[in-house]
Amino acid sequence: MKFTHENRLEMCLAGLPKSVDFEKVMEQLLTFHVETPSWGYGTGGTRFHTMRKPGEPRCIKEKLADAAQVHKHTGITPTVAIHIPWDKVSDWGELSSYASSLGLALGAVNPNLFQEDDYLKGSLSHREAAVRARAMDHIKECIDIMNTVGSRDLSLWLADGTNYPGQDNFRDRLRRMADSLAQVYALLGERQRLLIEYKPFEPAFYHTDIPDWGLATLYAEGLGPKAFTLVDLGHHLHGTNIEYIVAILLSRGKLGGFHFNNRKYADDDLTTGSINPYEVFLIFNEIVAAQAEPGAGGEGAGGEGAGGEKAEIAYMIDQSHYIKPSIEAMIQSVVNIQRAYAKALIVDRERLEEAREAGDMIEAEECLTAAFNYDVDPLLVEARRRMGVPDNPLAAFRRSGYMKQVEKERA
Ligand code: PSV
Ligand code: MN
């Protein structure tokens, strides 16, 4: 037998559970999108040093050009999240047109409320009204940008917190945060959303004002149907069961999106799936299971919210590549996410339900590990051929000569 794509695909299909509909899987893979972050194309550093890499982009336009390479080779990354003021330009309409000329659109807008000296003791929960007002002005500026570039999501992460016991009054901070978030919410347009990101540590190390999914979701539920929780994989304490958090948020209709990355120790920002690919699979397994439920509303359905509306899930990457070449690391991450999603799509859900009903935990677990261990790459290659992108995005990018060219141009 020749090892052609057709042969590989035939063998792959022959081994799939009967309950899996191949054309439906294709449709789901073809409509699946991942958003890459502008800041993931520059060189990240640690608090020790930033090692500059040859060919590094020098401005947002060059970052978009790099992002366009990821989209060109994977076919599934048409939008790029921006961080303000890191990506600030004088003419947002012009930047938006430039993005379209590359086949991209600008995605989530991330305000930066953590790098001004004023924010040493917080931003939206700061004791001083003047600092809170400054933070609010910055958020207004970000929403204006969203209006100009047509962005849907305001992705809000706050470094607010304290570093020592007694430093501030917890309940006062909670009140100020709730007031500020209500003001932010009131600024949103009809189709815009507020994604609230939580993090239990760093840069505040005693407490953070929004440490976990629970408080983020309390805020999101209190604010209303346009507010959601954002799950950054690196923002959990060790041993946290992230897929269960995902299930809870799905059941509340409050899963707004992800910041994908991977960690070994803390918020390491390693490429997604590099350390724990099973976790990524188990996360997608929860999403696919929720979407497969009767009445779940199909593509993008994230569960039933209080108002009965379905939440769209924004699949975003939040990585800052410190040592790997950024574009290649981004392609690796995108492909790892796509592969984890494909594996979740081929779980034998009928057999899984029967095993659960029979109380057979071995069989139930086997349903998951069978899908996780299955080689779904022929399905990915088929989807890529239908999209007109290379079978192997990483190899094709490496062959393209793009890095050599930008290394010269950006020297
Ligand atoms: C904070 O650690 C974070 O995850 C937030 O999403 C920021 O916007 C991003 O990283 C970049 O610093
Ligand atoms: Mn993040």
Can you describe this structure?
The chain is an alpha/beta fold and 411 residues long. It is globular, with a radius of gyration of 22 Å. The protein has 15 helices and 10 strands. The chain has helices at 5-14, 22-30, 60-74, 92-101, 129-149, 170-187, 213-223, 242-252, 277-292, 326-345, 349-357, 361-373, 377-387, 393-400, 402-409, and strands at residues 36-37, 79-84, 105-111, 153-157, 161-162, 193-197, 207-208, 227-232, 255-260, 314-317. Helix content is 46%, strand content 11%. Strands 4-6-8-9-10 form a 5-stranded parallel sheet. Strands 1-2-3 form a 3-stranded parallel sheet, covered by helices on one side. A two-stranded antiparallel ribbon has the order 5-7. Residues 297-303 and 305-309 have low confidence and may be disordered. Bound molecules: alpha-D-psicofuranose and manganese (II) ion. Alpha-D-psicofuranose (PSV) binds next to loops.
List keywords for this structure.
TIM Barrel; three-stranded parallel beta sheet; alpha/beta; binds alpha-D-psicofuranose; five-stranded parallel beta sheet; 411 residues
